[in-house]
Every structure is written in structure tokens, then in C-alpha cells.
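Supplementary Note 3. Input sequence used for the single-chain structure prediction.
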Amino acid sequence: MDHGGPTQKSDRDRIRQKRGAANKEIAKVARRLVKALGDGADPEDCMTALSAVVKKADAS
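The predicted structure, written as C-alpha cells, is reproduced below.
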């Protein structure tokens, strides 16, 4: 059953690499924001920054 995804292994690998890079960026920003929260940063600003990174990753 075909669900409309890429059929070539190279295409699937490219998508996987792109997703992995986006997830790595999200994790890096999340770690930085958790540290900032511990240091007394504004929680609203941190959540806004994290939300922007996740939206950017979804758009890619």
C-alpha cells in the first residue's frame, strides 16, 4: 500500500537527515532555554523563542 511518500531510498535518507538536523536544532535551543530559565529568565520569552524555533523547523 503506497501512502504517497518518497519511494527512493536516497529521497527517504535526505528527508531523515533534514528532520534530524531540525530536531538537533530544537534540542540545542531547548537546552539553552532551560539553562536561561534556571538563571532567572522570563518564562514567556523562553516559550516564545522555543515556539519560533519549532515553527521554523516545521516549515522546513
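The first helix runs from residue 9 to 38. The helical segments are 9-38, 43-59.
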